[in-house]
Design a protein that fits this description.
three-stranded antiparallel beta sheet; 4 helices; about 55% helix; single chain; about 140 residues
Length: about 140
Amino acid sequence: MAEYGEWNRKGASLSDKTAKKEYKVDQEFIIKGIEAGKLEYQDGSVWGNPYIKVLRRQLEEYITSELGPEYLAKATGKIELQKTKKEIAEIEQQLNVLSIRKAGLVAKKAKLEEIMSTPAAGKSPTKLKLKLKTPKNIN
C-alpha cells in the first residue's frame, strides 16, 4: 500500500515508458505485476497518449522478487552512472564559463595596470580618475 503523499513526491513514481528505459522491463511485466496485486498504478494520458504510472519503490521490490536483486543492482548502477556523467558535463560547462570570465578579468586587470603605470599629462597615477564600466553578469 502506498504511503500518504507518495504519489506526489518527486521521483517516487514513474511511467511504464520510463520504467522500460531505466529498468529494461516492458509494459507486459508491469501489467503482470498489477494483476498480481504487487503494484499500485494510476492511468494517465499526455496529449492523447496513454501511460501507466507506478510507484518506483513497489516496482523495484517487484523486479527484485521476479528477476532477482542482481538485475536491479545492474539497472540502478546504470542509472547512477548516467546521472553522474550528466552532473560532470554540467560542472565542466560551468567551468568553461568561469574560465572565459577569468580570462576577461585578467585582461582587464592588465590593461588597468598598464594605464596606472604610465603618468598622464603631468598628473600622478594615484590622482588619475578612470571611468570604468561595470561587468555584465555571465550566466
